[in-house]
Design a protein that fits this description.
single chain, 275 residues, 4-stranded mixed beta sheet, two-stranded antiparallel ribbon, 8 helices
Length: 275
């Protein structure tokens, strides 16, 4: 009888010492899983935006290429213009838009194909063209030759304003900006930099690279951050002026480096419409 009572007491003691899951720890784990999922979604959205923008940015092609695409019926939309407006490019992703300021159509002709790619050509650079229409409404015989072929192919009605490459990803860029800046402004206090530091760095840095830097440096999804200083009154974090300065420097470097890459890698890898 005594042995039985002792056994029951030992069983009760072992049950009392058994680890019990704290509801606070469970909530923290769920929060970390949520951050992990959000981090993955943000990176995937950034990657989709970058690839889509690169794919759809207009690339310069020859006059003969334009005529061949029109004749083969590969043109799904086209636009005439005489200048490229670089001010339409967004702060993260974007390309110059084609605009027509004169009454005569051309000399630039941009078109989009069924695979989602866009091209453009200068219709003044042609070798030979035969025209059977009046070209008073066009900038020259080259533009009139393409217009004549568009009419013959029955796709003249597809003309209009060709949406720039950035328009197809504008919604994703807006979502990235809203979610990221919303977390920076209204989320948990950043450890490495102030809210203003990350705001300026994320907003100004080209191609949304500030977003990736924020994810890598702050890593709010991580289970632990032993190397990060705890938030407190005595903590020294990067300030907003530093973020603004870094963002401006990176933007200037981007403007300087892109033409060099375009020169050495070509328009296919580094497209620059109108250049």
């Amino acid at each position: 009888m005594v042995a039985t009572i002792r056994g029951q007491q030992q069983l009760a003691a072992s049950c009392d010492n058994a680890p019990v899951e704290s509801p606070v720890i469970s909530t923290v784990d769920r929060s970390r899983r949520w951050w992990s999922a959000l981090r993955l979604v943000l990176v995937l959205l950034w990657l989709v935006t970058a690839v889509t923008t690169w794919w759809t940015t207009p690339r310069e092609q020859s006059y003969e290429k334009a005529r061949a695409d029109v004749a083969a019926g590969r043109v799904t939309a086209f636009q005439w213009g005489d200048q490229w407006n670089s001010t339409e490019a967004g702060p993260w992703f974007g390309a110059s838009g084609l605009r027509q300021s004169s009454s005569q159509l051309g000399p630039f002709f941009a078109w989009k194909t069924s695979d989602g790619r866009s091209y453009w050509t200068d219709t003044t650079t042609f070798t030979q063209v035969e025209i059977h229409i009046e070209y008073d409404d066009y900038s020259g015989p080259g533009a009139a030759g393409i217009a004549q072929q568009l009419r013959a192919a029955g796709i003249e009605q597809r003309g209009g304003t060709l949406p720039p490459g950035a328009s197809s990803t504008a919604g994703i860029v807006f979502l990235l900006a809203v979610v990221t800046l919303g977390v920076v402004i209204a989320g948990p206090p950043p450890r490495r930099g102030t809210r203003w530091f990350w705001f300026w760095l994320i907003y100004i840095t080209p191609l949304g690279l500030g977003l990736l830097f924020w994810l890598v440096r702050e890593h709010p999804w991580a289970r632990s951050a032993p190397h990060a200083a705890p938030s407190g009154d005595g903590e020294r974090r990067d300030r907003g002026t530093l973020g603004l300065a870094i963002g401006l420097i990176l933007a200037i470097l981007y403007i300087a480096v892109v033409p060099i890459l375009h020169k050495f890698l070509g328009d296919w890898w580094v497209p620059r419409p109108g250049v």
